[in-house]
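Retro notes
What went well: the complex prediction finally ran end to end.
Inputs used:
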Amino acid sequence: MVEVPVPKEKWSGKVGTVVLGASTADSKERKVLSIGGETGMPFLSYEGLGNRQLIAGEVVDDTSELIEVAVRPFGDAVNDPAAWARKWVEEFGADLVCLRLRSTNPEGKDASPEDAAQTVLKVLAAVDVPLIVYGCGHEEKDARTMEAVSNACAKVRLLLGQAEENAYKTISAAAMSNHHALIAYSNLDINLAKQINILLSDFGVKAENIVMDPLMAGLGMGLEYSYSVNERIRMAALMGDRMLQVPMLCDVTSAWEAREASEENAAWGDVVERGKWWEAATGLAALVSGADLLIVRSPLAAMVLQDAISDLRGGK
Amino acid sequence: MPTAIEIFKHLPKKNCGKCNFPTCLAFAMQLASSKAKLADCPYVTEEAKAKLEASSAPPIRLITIGAGETKVEIGDETELYRHDKKFFHATRYAMTISDQASEKEVAAKLRRASDLRFERVGQVIALDMLAVRNDSRDPTRFAEMVKRVSRESALPLILMSQDPAAVRAAASAANLSRPLIYAATLDNLEGMAAAAKELKYPLAVRHSDLNELADLVEKVKAAGVEDIVLDLGVEDLQQTLERNTIVRKNAVRKTFRGLGYPILTNVIGKERGMAMALMSTMKYGGIVLMEDLDPAHAVPLFVLRQNIYTDPQVPIQVKAGLYPINNPDKDSPILFTVNFSLTYFTVAGDIEKSRMPAWLLVVDTEGLSVLTAFSAGKLTSESVAEALRSTEAMVKSEKGLLIIPGMLSRMSGKLQEATGLKVVVGPKESSGIPKLLKSL
């Protein structure tokens, strides 16, 4: 009989591992999760799977800009970040919670960094999974917010968002002194992704504390650019580029920027089912191109993606 | 295509010049760049000819199903990663109709098939094929359903049956244009291969073990069938990703040539089926065969295909023109941007988010982004003024206000002169647009 060869690549490098959720003196027993560690292209079991890909459920502390169809299954819980986070973990199988402190936006509610830190503590107390925390996207304010958050949670290992080329020093210093991991964000370009990792490493942040976010564009919104940038990053890491050998985070809530994800239109079918698959398709593209950690908005999409991850890992 | 040196090894090295090139090496170089034909050499041996033809065949055979405007072409791919060049022949989607379906069900499926047609960024995205499945096991009934479907739909067909007699019955009942026979298996190989050869239809071959599949393919080829499609018998996402990758990589890297054909995936289950359809679209699928396709699934699936099969060298463009956002009127301002799709989507999205009515003028920059277009001279105060004129923007908006991208602040003076509008320099990042619009 004919023997079809399995074209296994002999890679010299591998993706590093980052541990999330470990703590020195947490108020509760918190799950410890590892991401990364792959020795091959995504989900090729014959090249090496690495750690299980994880899903972080998005929680926002300001309901003014929510997309209703995406968060409908949470009901009233969206008014309380702690209750929302609990639903993510207990009902919808999230591995982590991603808390966005949108209330700190100076053009919105302008909550103080101290108040925001209190919200983080409340969410930490409500769930036993690791936490990702973001500011509001306002550069100056985020530096102060994230510093306050990091200091307030010194005993719990958070993943802090986000270090950018023009704004990384304050957040990096806070992360280093409190033993927090850090998201290294770059804008859809393999060279920029490498650049921010180099800046962080020169500043003293160790690779074991960096998760990179090369920007996942949503379905229909430039997804193909991200898909190829992600694939190139993974290949460069496997070929031995040490500055790209960190796990990858993809924020697939970008899917909701496309109008097809949430607009009512009879010809396009049921909006709930369509929105779920719009985000799930974005997530699947992120996973297949190299993501280790996804931030997801819709719990329906999150469940599709959890099943897909198990399925892709051979039922485990 | 082999290199000139590889070809040269197989030439007679007589340097006779009868091919109209002075030496065999010169002839080899012309062959390598497809500027000459091997038949021009009178001395080349049959053995060398066979070897050269085999090594110059495309790694994955191009298969055509159907005919005319709706025909589908799959295969002829050369890459493992789209960023290395591009993916050439997009995944095609097929929906199934059972030959036991009621009159009502058939009518509903046919209507759905023709409704699954959308337009996005200037391209039509639609369902590509219909499959008729021989659930009745009755050749006559199968033939009747095939006849009916082929009469009412112009889409290329897939004949799903285990029985060569049913395939032959369908072929003689209706005037079919190259439908795909699905499928030859261990149990019906001879009969199916004979039917495919005689009818000159492409044939799908199915086995869930790749070694066994390669064996079956060899036998089908030996029986005289050239146009082959592979079904790898996958049942979950891991199998889809791994088997498709093994087949594709062996073909394009030439580590194994026996499976150099496009792949058909028969997806199973509603939720997993949709996930498998998405996976096949990203990972080398030629045809995805589905029981049914809900529009709520079709839209994301078709858009994913559009994204993945975009040529990485050619930016997707949106149509230039004046776009109303949030129901603008004569008192609403005009903003302008370029027709690079990503820029347009971001800017339009941020205006929508502001909930402020505005006119968005999209200027044709051949798909270049703001700064690139400006540097390349494709975005000038003249081209913006011309776009304002041709779209009658200043008739639709009488506010006399033009917001320009923050990166183009140096254009503001000239633009004010050329248009007579008051120019406001917008933010450098599109995310600042809502704040600006609210402050006007």
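What we learned: The mean pLDDT of chain A is 95.
What to try next: split runs per interface for comparison.
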